[in-house]
Write a structure and sequence with these properties.
The chain is of the alpha+beta class. It contains 24 helices and 26 strands. Strands 2, 3, 4, 5, 10, 21 and 22 form a 7-stranded mixed sheet that branches. Strand 2 and strand 3 (81-94) form a beta hairpin.
Length: 687
């Protein structure tokens, strides 16, 4: 068949066919490339992103309900529970902005009626006024969004009633929770500390960012859970807390549960066994309370201290650093904090919440102006400084153990015409010929000022302050004890400030030499006394003997920790202890042991008047020291009268329960009685 098309037409057709073939090839290539990309992407989704996508799908298809952790318990050294958690149903109120007080009072009256009708008949029902106080309309205790606990331990009838009439009680919720209970004996309450709701505790640095980047749901803090806010509860928060539990529910796209719940049980926190001995602690608290009452009302002029209303004491083992008692009195009932303290209760106990044995706490007067007229819990050492002053003088070669000094009752310094006299106590009593040891026994301000304070300045000038500061800090004065307790104070040293004010180091060194230039805590004094007793070992105060898990396994045990050591010749220690053995003191008549002690009456100008604070340190037995005790009584007068008798009762309690010779006296007495009974029985049978 003849092709009638022109040659040009034929060529055009050939070109078209070639172009079509090229386009077809391009199409197949692009299609192949697209399918290849799709296959690679599918493989990537399956093998690389698959697990994470599956997890995301699981999250979408499930709902988690958190179960708060079960907090570990806190026991004393003998295993007596001081703080423990119990499960309960509680009634909470959530304040809604704009709610009027009159509506709150009406709600309180309705709740009171329900509690009276359906509550435990063995318990006194809450009144409407008490309930309204827990609502905290003034926001004294709670932030606006925080839930307020109204009542715990709801009865079954109360739960049933509120569940059935929920709509009638606006802002009310029933919450299942773990409640922190504290010993009714109020054992070392400020040391143990207290708890707050997590969403109200974020003012503390520990909790501000604790949930940031936390992917483990069992470790995530819940707004509704209670956390440690002070003391041991805060210090060991991570140990005590445990882990959250989870209830995981499968749900459909309508958020309806479509399958069985999967439970991850909460993990109980570890338990703490403190070094605190309950009986020694309670004896310490009682000793302070009863002695304060005695000296406020005493007819003895030397003993009477009308404004002595607070007292602080610490008992620390010399060989271990274990603190067996720490008291800050008055104290309060820590159970008031359960779920949030009421505004009324807070106003009543706010001045007793902080631990005055480790930090500065103002005198507990309601009026601010009145508080300014009284010393805080930080007081000058007074004459309890003098053993350390003598040690420094010996170490620096300013004196020797046999240095003599004629004490005329005062020491005078300053340029002519502007002399300043430092007087001894008792109106400038002259002690005559003194040696370093007798200067301690007689508590001579003049000796300390002339032979150490002024002598150090005359030799080293302003650099003498650095020598003084360094030596004091080696004994724990002016630095933290490193106990780890939250909010612990390093004390308040004034000698550098006084040097700036007076234009030189002479005045501050002289006044520091007899204890008038540094204010310290009772815990610092106890560490200082322990360092003296051990002849130079400064120990870290220990409050936890061991950490034990829920199965009874010891997770962590106590380890003695030496912070620093001061090496001095034995003759130096013998010198100060010879003096400390002869210090006159009240309250130790009939004490079975030789002991070393130093009283202090620190003078402090507060609110335009001079106050006298009672201070006392001691350790016993003298031959082999076991226990060191420090007592501080602001406005307590003479240390020998206002503080020493408290220490005696602490030593007696320790001896009774633990034993200053290694055997508790109560155990020795029981053994003696048993032997006597056996002897009597044997004699009876022989007859």
């Amino acid at each position: 068949m003849t092709d009638d098309r022109t040659e040009e037409a034929q060529k055009r057709e050939i070109r078209n066919r070639r172009n079509f073939s090229f386009r077809l090839n391009i199409f197949f290539f692009v299609t192949f490339f697209a399918f290849s990309l799709l296959i690679v992407r599918l493989a990537y989704l399956q093998f690389v992103e698959g697990p994470s996508l599956a997890e995301a799908e699981q999250k979408i298809a499930t709902r988690d309900v958190y179960i708060p952790p079960i907090r570990g318990n806190i026991y004393d050294s003998t295993g007596t529970a001081i703080a423990y958690s119990t499960s309960t149903q509680s009634l909470y109120y959530t304040f809604e902005p704009g709610t009027k007080e009159e509506d709150g009072r009406k709600l309180a009256e309705s709740l009171a009626a329900v509690f009276a009708q359906y509550g435990d008949p063995a318990e006194k029902p809450l009144t409407a006024d008490e309930i309204f106080g827990y609502m905290d309309f003034g926001g004294i205790v709670h932030l606006p969004y925080q839930q307020r606990r109204i009542k715990s331990n709801l009865t079954d009838k109360e739960i049933a009633y509120f569940s059935e009439h929920r709509n009638e009680f606006k802002g009310i919720d029933i919450v299942e929770e773990s409640i922190r209970q504290y010993s009714e004996d109020q054992v070392a309450v400020q040391l143990v500390g207290y708890m707050k709701k997590f969403n109200g505790a974020t003012s503390l640095d520990k909790y501000k960012t604790i949930n940031d980047n936390q992917d483990d749901p069992t470790l995530k803090y819940l707004d509704s859970e209670e956390v440690g806010f002070d003391g041991i509860e805060l210090m060991y928060q991570d140990v005590l807390r445990g882990r959250n539990g989870l209830k995981t529910y499968p749900v459909n796209n309508m958020s309806r549960i479509v399958g069985p719940m999967e439970l991850t049980k909460p993990v109980k926190g570890d338990n703490l066994y403190l070094t605190i001995n309950k009986d020694v602690q309670l004896a310490t608290q009682n000793a302070i309370t009863t002695h304060l009452e005695k000296i406020r009302n005493s007819s003895n002029k030397a003993e009477r201290a009308e404004n002595a209303i607070t007292g602080y004491a610490v008992a620390m083992e010399v060989k271990t650093g274990k603190v067996v008692a720490m008291a800050s009195m008055p104290d309060y009932d820590p159970n008031l904090w359960q779920g949030g303290i009421s505004s009324k209760d807070y106003e009543e106990v706010q001045y007793f919440i902080s631990n005055g044995a480790i930090r500065e706490v103002q005198a507990p007067y309601a009026e601010y102006e009145e508080r300014l007229k009284h010393p805080s819990s930080l007081v000058f050492l007074g004459s309890t400084q003098k053993p350390l002053t003598i040690l420094l003088g010996l170490k620096e070669g300013l004196i020797t153990p046999s240095t003599s000094y004629n004490d005329r009752g005062y020491f005078e310094f300053g340029r002519k015409g502007y002399e300043v006299r430092v007087r001894n106590a008792g109106g400038g009593k002259a002690n005559g010929l003194l040696y370093p040891w007798s200067a301690i026994a007689k508590s001579s301000n003049a000796f300390m000022a002339a032979e150490i304070g002024n002598a150090l300045y005359m030799r080293d000038g302003d650099e003498g302050l650095d020598i003084w500061d360094s030596f004091n800090k080696q004994f724990g004065l002016g630095v933290k004890t490193e106990s780890g307790l939250p909010g612990e104070s390093a004390g308040d040293i004034n000698y550098y400030k006084e040097a700036e004010r007076s234009g030189g180091a002479q005045s501050p060194l002289i006044y520091a030499s007899f204890g008038q230039q540094g204010r310290y805590t009772a815990l610092q004094l106890a560490q200082y006394a322990t360092t003296l007793a051990s002849h130079g070992q400064r120990l870290k105060p220990q409050f936890v003997d061991r950490i034990v898990d829920t199965d009874g396994n010891v997770v962590q045990s106590y380890q003695k920790e030496v912070l620093n050591t001061i090496e001095l010749p034995d003759t130096y220690w013998d010198t100060i202890e010879r003096g400390m053995s002869q210090v006159n003191v009240q309250g130790f008549d009939g004490f079975d042991y030789n002991f070393y002690r130093k009283t202090g009456t620190s003078e402090q100008d507060v609110g335009g008047t001079r106050k006298e604070n009672a201070v006392f340190i001691a350790y016993a037995p003298a031959e082999d020291p076991v226990l060191a005790v420090a007592v501080v009584v602001p406005e307590g007068g003479f240390g020998g009268w206002g503080a020493a008798p408290i220490a005696r009762q602490i030593f007696d309690a320790y001896d009774q329960e633990i034993g200053l010779t290694g055997t508790p006296k109560k155990q020795a007495a029981a053994t003696t009685d048993a032997n006597a009974d056996q002897t009597g029985q044997a004699n009876s049978e022989a007859q």
